[in-house]
Amino acid sequence: MKYGENLFNRTRDTRTPVRPDPILQRQPQTQAHSANEAVAPPARPEPVTPVPAMAIPAADPTPTSRLIVGPNIKLRGVEIDDCDTLVVEGRVEATMVSREIQISETGAFSGKVDVDVAEIRGTFQGEMTARKKLVIHASGRVTGKIRYGKMLVQEGGEMSGDIAALAGPELKVAG
User: Fold this and answer.
1) Phi, psi of 70, deg, nearest 5
2) Is the pLDDT of residue 159 over 90?
3) What are the φ/ψ torsions at residue 24 (nearest 5 degrees)?
4) pLDDT, position 78
5) For residue 23, what are the contacts with CB-CB under 8 A and spacing of at least 6?
6) Which of 10-24, 28-42, 156-170 has the highest mean pLDDT?
7) Measured at the alpha carbon of residue 79, what is the angle toward residues 157 and 138, in degrees to the nearest 5?
8) If we measure between CA atoms, which residue out of 90, 88, 85 comes closest to residue 71?
9) What is the torsion angle, in degrees rounded to the nearest 10, for the CA atoms of residue 120, residue 101, residue 124 and residue 72?
10) Is residue 68 a contact partner of residue 87, using CB atoms and an 8 Å limit?
11) Residue that wins the pLDDT comparison between 167 and 113
12) C-alpha distance across the termini of the chain, in Å
């Protein structure tokens, strides 16, 4: 296209034509056989062996809701409710009531979290209640007010702040 030509007012179409796919347009051909030609019998399909019922895992009848905040994504100023699992690979500043939170090595969460299970490989800062279990991996860093049912900290994992085990009625999980 030369300088000064109008892109929208061209007089002729300069695009190359698209040829139709010959395979898609091929019609089944019926052939008439003469009396001299031998007609081969149709091929028999291979028998299918049934798969035992135990080999196929049954689908979970209750669908799970999962929110993934990918790397280089920043989610700020939200409330996250009714989410079974939050996976943080980017940055999140939020308040969350859920079943599970997973913070990856590249992830960072700042805010308030109330979950059953927390698995931290990245950074958490704020207030966390992990009713059942808190797992801090070797690359995990947790800072703030932390309450937990059971806790596992791998060698290299760090935690600081107001840290205590849940006691009495807070330990019970609402069901």
Assistant:
1) -70, 170
2) yes
3) -70, -25
4) 87
5) none
6) 156-170
7) 10
8) 90
9) 100
10) yes
11) 113
12) 69
Q: What is the mean pLDDT of residues 135-162?
A: 95
Percentage above 90 pLDDT, the chain: 52
Residue 149 backbone class (left: φ over 0; alpha: ψ -120 to 50; beta: rest): alpha
pLDDT on residue 9: 55
Amino acid identity for residue 174 in this structure: A
DSSP assignments along 109-140, one per residue: EEEEEEEEEEEESSEEEEEEEEEEEEEE-TT-
Token code pair at residue 62 = 């209750």
Please check the confidence at residue 125 and state whether its pLDDT lies above 90: yes
Q: Which residue has the tokens 């999962």?
A: 66
One-letter amino acid of 43: A
Q: What are phi and psi of 116, to 5 degrees?
A: -80, -50
What pLDDT is stored for residue 56 in this prediction?
Answer: 46
How are strands ordered across the β-sheet holding 123-136? 66-69, 74-88, 91-103, 108-120, 123-136, 141-153, 158-165
Q: Containing H/E element for 55?
A: none
Q: Which structure tokens are listed for 114?
A: 């109330």
What does the pLDDT read at residue 81? 87
